Structure formats: structure tokens, C-alpha cells
Amino acid sequence: MVLRPPVEPMLAQAAEVMPPVRPLTSGVAYEQKFDGYRALVFTPAGSGGRVLLQTRRGSLVQGAFPDLVAAAEQLPDGLVLDGELLAWDVEAGVLSFEGLQRRAAARAGGASALAARLPAFFVVFDVLQLDGRELLDLPYVERRARLESLFANHGLTSPWTLCPMTTDAAKARAWLESWTEVSGVEGIVVKPLTSRYLPGHRGAWTKVRRRDTTEAIIGAITGTLTRPQLLVLGRHDQDGRLRAVGRTVPLRTEAARLVAEHLTAAVRRHPWEGVTFAATWGSRDVLDVRLVRPDLVAEISADRAVDRGGVWRHPLRFKRLRLDVGVGDVPRFGEGSAAAAG
């Protein structure tokens, strides 16, 4: 069977920590997890065909990435690769998720100009078809070997990058603790060496994002003052303005009760008057919020996916109130997971 889009990528379930290594299993592979767009690359089966770039949801976006299409001349025909699509901000010298969003939304006329400022890269972690032969039923360890041979035999170079992989749990733990300091690297993915590739399936693979503890100011809530449901959090920028940085997941009952004991409704001149907050990242749905006096500090757990200079894309996790810390001690907008002063 020759694979053609759309192909649902195999998914990973989220976990808080690296799963334990079980002695009776055949082992696992640990791959670095990058903060980009999941995508599949299809090269034509023969002359006259087109290179196709498919998103996780099945859309074809090769028109927005002419640089990647041109670089596919390095690839053999009849190939399907699974990986992470990234964008490099040439001026800032970092991987940029915001830049990737701009690339993905570009129309054909402006795609080439954007490619010069925000060149695309593709981090490959799986091969689903090689030389026109579908490989889904092969175990991970065999697919990985063929992927490594593909890079070696064809001398693949940028923008094609082989995803770093190890079978050493200690090395993977070090990646999770140190490599996630690098822009664009957010964790690891754990894959059994015997796992087949099951399109659309979630369960065999595990993704672990690095999470750090930091602080932010409670500026608004959903729910009521006596039963807050989630918190909308902010930090002051260098000009003293309170900037929204994210929202929490829904509070547990005990946490909601403790927060409610200290909340006070905003009376007037709240810095967020007239501001709306998206229900989720990129959503047009708006949260129904109640503004509160921004004088409470929350300790939160956050991952490494930060955009717009200081906004977390994924929901934050409330850990506790920091009644011993004033709002002036909270890290400034853009300081990421720094700890509060004092």
C-alpha cells in the first residue's frame, strides 16, 4: 500500500515524569521533543509528482513553505517522513513558534519573503514509507535504523535534521533537565522499541514536558469570588503595566476554597478593564471573567512553551498562594520561569 495524505500521525499521551524502565520489557527510545508543528512530508512516487506537506489535522501547507519544498530535492522518491516543523528567526537567532505561525499563515505571494527571514527546518523522528514501501508494521527500532541509513546514504543536510535519540535513561533525564533551556526544545518523547506505527493511536508513546515552578499575579478569575474556577494570571512589564501571561487549569475544590478566602473584587481602574481573554490558545472563544484586585501572588507550574515575549501557550497549574511574596517580587513579564525575589 502506498501512503497518501491525509495520514493521521501517531500521538503520544502526556505524563508528568519519565515512566520507569521495566526490566522485563524490550526497552524504550527517548527522543527530544521540539516545540513546533507536527507534520508529514510526502515525496512523489515518480517524476511529475509534487512534494506535499501535511499538518497533523490533514491540511496541505506546502505552498507556505517553498524553502522546504525546494530542499526536498535531497530526498528520494516514494518517501513519507514524520517530524516537527520549526522556524528559525534569523534576526533574533532563536527558534520561533510565533515565526512558525506566520509562516503557516502566509499566502503564496509572501511565502518566499518570509522564508528568507524565518527559514523552515524539519526535525525527522520517523519514516513511514521508503522507496514506495509502507513501513507502519515494522517495530520502532527497525524504522529508526532505516531512518538513520536514509540520512547517512543520502547525506541529508539542513533543513532536514535527524531527531536526537538515546536508549539511555540517564542521558534522557539530562536532556529533560538541561536541553530544555534551549529555545524550541520542550521535553522528551518515550517510545517502546517494539512499537508499530499506528496512525491516530495514542497510548504507546509518552511525552514528558519539562515543568518549572514560578510565580504570577492573580488578575481575574472565572466563576465567583466564593468559588473561583480558574485563574487568569499576569506580570508587570518594565513600564509597570500588568500584562496577562496565561490561565490555569480548573482549580481543585480545596485550592479554590483557599484562594477564595483571599480574593477581593476589583473596585475601579483595573488594568484589564475592557480586555478579553481567549478560552484557549488561538481560540476565538472568550472567557467570562471577573476582575479581582491584583494583589495576590500564585505559585504555578509551567512548561517551556512561551510566546509573545512572555505568554504561556499551555494552561498553567496552580500550586499554592504565596502570601509571603508581594506583587513587586514577582518576575517581570518576559522573565519566564524565574523565581520570585525574596
CATH superfamily of the largest domain: DNA ligase/mRNA capping enzyme
Quote the average pLDDT.
90
Q: Total strand count, please?
A: 19
CATH class value of the largest domain: Alpha Beta
Shape, principal axes of CA atoms: globular
Query: How many separate helices?
Result: 6
- The low-pLDDT segments are none
Derived structural class: alpha+beta
Order of helices and strands: EEEEHEEHHEEHEEHEEEEEHEEEE
Rounded to the nearest angstrom, the radius of gyration is 23 Å
CATH structural fold name of the largest domain: D-amino Acid Aminotransferase, Chain A, domain 1
Roughly how many Å apart are the termini?
62 Å
Domains counted in the coordinates: how many?
2
Task: Report on the architecture of this protein.
The protein is α+β, with helices and mostly antiparallel strands and 342 residues long. It folds into 2 domains: 24-209, DNA ligase/mRNA capping enzyme (D-amino Acid Aminotransferase, Chain A, domain 1); 212-329, Nucleic acid-binding proteins (OB fold (Dihydrolipoamide Acetyltransferase, E2P), Beta Barrel), CATH 2.40.50. 17% of the residues lie in helices and 35% in strands. The chain has 6 helices and 19 strands. The chain has helices at residues 66-71, 97-105, 108-117, 140-154, 169-178, 253-260; strands spanning 11-15, 28-34, 37-42, 52-55, 80-89, 94-95, 120-130, 133-134, 160-162, 165-166, 185-192, 202-209, 212-223, 228-236, 242-247, 289-302, 306-307, 311-312, 317-321. The strands form 4 sheets. Strands 3, 4, 5, 6, 7, 8 and 9 form a 7-stranded mixed beta sheet that branches. The termini are far apart. 34% of the residues are buried. The mean pLDDT is 90.
